[in-house]
Write a structure and sequence with these properties.
By secondary structure, the protein is of the alpha+beta class. The chain has one domain: Lipoprotein like domain (Double Stranded RNA Binding Domain, 2-Layer Sandwich), CATH 3.30.160. It has 4 helices and 4 strands; from the N terminus they run ααβαβββα. A hairpin with a 5-residue loop joins β3 and β4. α2 crosses α4. The longest helix has 33 residues. The protein is flat and about 65 Å long. The termini are far apart.
């Protein structure tokens, strides 16, 4: 007997969804910024806003700097800083697609970054890591289009690097978040 609008697949998909949700909560998953009972989530945002990002000299450094500021201090730069974030960027291009005449028709722009988060008061590095972003672009017949495509790939890679650095630092601060009693 079949109920109107319901099938075995509908019931099965609901059952599977419930099992997945139950398993996800049992594995210790919790949102980074969401409301979790025993932790003070405002601590992460406050600590992120206390980071001073160093500015490098290249245009790529400036792009990553701007993206990091957007992620770490979305409400403006505070007066007091407790941490300094320094980054070192390394850019390379790899040809990944060749035409019959051996010309490269597609590149991967690879952006590697080493970052250090230093406590200003103690002078010690409290967190560091490496991040890699890869952005692909096609080589076209127009030189202007090639310049724009490469610039766009560089911007995408810089944004991805900044996002990953900000996420890793957020996870670090999450790991040291004081418990609320």
């Amino acid at each position: 007997m079949r109920l109107k609008g319901y099938s075995l697949w509908n019931h099965l998909s609901i059952l599977i969804s419930l099992v997945v949700i139950t398993a996800a909560t049992g594995c210790g998953f919790h949102p980074l910024y969401g409301e979790v009972a025993p932790l003070d989530d405002s601590f992460i945002s406050e600590e992120l806003s206390k980071i001073k990002v160093t500015l490098g000299s290249s245009r790529l450094d400036q792009i990553v700097y701007g993206n990091l500021l957007d992620r770490l201090t979305p409400f403006g730069i505070p007066d007091a800083h407790y941490y300094i974030l320094s980054t070192m960027l390394f850019e390379s291009k790899q040809g990944v697609a060749l035409e019959r005449d051996a010309t490269v028709s597609r590149f991967n722009l690879v952006l590697d970054s080493e970052f250090n988060l230093k406590n200003i008061e103690t002078g010690k590095i409290i967190f560091s890591g490496n991040v890699r972003a890869v952005a692909a672009y096609n080589v076209l017949r127009s030189e202007f289009a090639n310049v724009i495509a490469e610039r766009n790939a560089r911007d995408r890679a810089a944004r991805e690097v900044a996002d990953e650095i900000a996420t890793r630092i957020s996870v670090y601060f999450r790991s040291i978040t004081p418990k609320v009693e």
